[in-house]
Structure formats: structure tokens, C-alpha cells
Specification:
CATH topology of the domain at 12-88: Ubiquitin-like (UB roll)
CATH class of the domain at 12-88: Alpha Beta
Number of strands: 12
Structural class: alpha+beta
Order of helices and strands: EEHEEEHHEEEEEEEH
Radius of gyration: 29 Å
Strand content: 25-35%
InterPro entries: CAP-Gly_dom_sf, CAP-Gly_domain, TBCB_Ubl, Ubiquitin-like_dom, Ubiquitin-like_domsf
CATH superfamily of the domain at 12-88: Phosphatidylinositol 3-kinase Catalytic Subunit, Chain A, domain 1
Organism: Octopus sinensis
Pfam family, one: Ubiquitin_2
Helix content: 10-25%
Distance between the termini: 60 Å
Protein name: Tubulin-folding cofactor B isoform X1
Shape: elongated
Subcellular location: Cytoplasm
């Protein structure tokens, strides 16, 4: 008799973090659905490395693999609890640790420390700023890609098409397309619709500029991705059936 088995893997993995920057090691748990790019962001604060870091996985002294694809998930690599994740970043000067006289060590005031540009706080703030700029760049690219998709959808519609508008948290509404293109009230491409019922927000004009003609409350504008063109009979046509 055959039996079915289900392999269950833990959602987290515990790794030992080492680097060529510091002799200090740490043990951390990471979710396996974390992307390598997001993992690097966490490792910046742990090791002092930059986003230029290279990651390599070891089991004790045995090399397992490099982890170079930023968009891949951590769990897509053969990671197991107890493995070593080694961080290499040749753009960062390694830190030397020496013993010191704790009782007579030099202590810097908070004001003096804040003025220095080569301390860890300044380095951390710089990296956090770089991470923020990276996120902004990624968001900008995503918005540009989305707008290209909206423009392509707009080009597939034409004035007079019957359509259905489905906007989040609102009931579906049917109507006729009366306007396609850019507007002055919001950036991006929009579809102006004359609805079959008074469920809109305007009469085809917004902020004093007219885009099409219809009765008040019968007009509205939605993004192309919220519009489906097809056979949606007008109310008068339905009454004739």
C-alpha cells in the first residue's frame, strides 16, 4: 500500500553571521520568505557592510553556495539551522579590535562624537539614507511600470465603448466611455465614464475643466485597470427583453 508524505519546512532558519569586516559573530533567525535584497539590508546593521556585499553559505567549513540573486528568497537556497552565512565587502575597511584599559580609557563627549563624520552613527545614518533612496528608486520604477500598463490599456479602449467600472470598496457600475487620456486633476491616464445611473461624482467636468458632457452625478473618472470593456446592455435595452 502506497503512502503519501508531506514535507514540512520551518518558516525560519537560524544562521551564524560572520564577515571579513569584523571578527565578531552573531546568531540570528531569519524568515525564509525574506528576499536576499531585504536580507542584505538587515546585514548592513549587523556587520557594517554595504549593499555591495557578497554572501556565501557554509556548513561548518564546507562551502555550500553563493547567494547572489537579490530577488530570490532566502528559502530558495539550501539553508539549514546552524549554517554559516559569511558576508564579504571589500569596499569597507576591516575593524581592528584591541584590548584597552577600561578604567583609564579616553571618553568622548556626546557633542564631540556627534561632530565626527567617521563614527559608526554617521556610517549607520548614511547607509539608512542609501537604503531609503534605494527604496524610493524601486518605488519610482514600479510606478513607471504601472503607468505604462495603464497607458497600454487606455489605447485598447475607444470612445463609445460600453464598460463596467470596478473600484475597490465600491459596487460595480456600468456605463459608456466618454473620455480617454491625461487630465489636469491627477497625473496618469484616466477613463471618463457616463454611468447608466446617477452613481457618479460629476457631470464630466472636474475643477472647472470639462472633459465630456453628461448630467450631474452621471459622470466619473477611473483608472484604466478598473475598467472592463464588453457587452453591458444599457437599461433601456434590458427593458426590451
Amino acid at each position: 500500500m502506497s503512502e503519501n508524505f508531506t514535507v514540512v519546512t520551518a518558516p525560519y532558519v537560524e544562521l551564524t553571521i560572520t564577515s571579513n569586516i569584523s571578527p565578531i559573530t552573531s546568531i540570528k533567525r531569519f524568515p525564509k520568505d525574506l528576499t536576499i535584497a531585504d536580507l542584505k539590508m538587515k546585514l548592513i546593521l549587523l556587520t557594517g557592510a554595504t549593499m555591495n556585499m557578497k554572501l556565501h553559505l557554509y556548513q561548518a567549513k564546507r562551502s555550500i553556495c553563493s547567494m547572489d540573486e537579490d530577488s530570490s528568497l532566502l528559502g530558495s537556497y539550501p539553508v539549514e539551522d546552524g549554517y554559516i552565512l559569511h558576508v564579504t565587502d571589500d569596499s569597507v575597511t576591516p575593524v581592528d579590535y584591541v584590548e584597552c584599559d577600561v578604567e583609564n580609557r579616553y571618553q568622548m563627549s556626546e557633542t564631540e562624537y556627534a561632530k565626527k563624520s567617521d563614527n559608526f552613527r554617521a556610517y549607520k545614518e548614511k547607509n539608512l539614507k542609501n537604503l531609503s533612496e534605494l527604496k524610493n528608486t524601486e518605488n519610482l520604477k514600479q510606478n513607471e511600470d504601472k503607468e505604462k500598463e495603464e497607458e497600454k490599456l487606455t489605447e485598447s479602449f475607444k470612445i463609445g465603448d460600453r464598460c463596467k467600472a470596478e473600484v475597490k470598496n465600491q459596487p460595480p457600475r456600468t456605463g459608456t466611455i466618454k473620455y480617454l487620456g491625461l487630465t489636469d486633476f491627477q497625473p496618469g491616464h484616466w477613463v471618463g465614464i457616463q454611468y447608466d445611473e446617477p452613481v457618479g461624482k460629476n457631470d464630466g467636468s472636474v475643477k472647472g475643466k470639462r472633459y465630456f458632457e453628461c448630467l450631474m452625478k452621471y459622470g466619473g473618472f477611473v483608472r484604466p485597470s478598473s475598467v472592463t470593456v464588453g457587452y453591458f446592455p444599457e437599461p433601456d435595452d434590458i427593458d426590451e427583453f
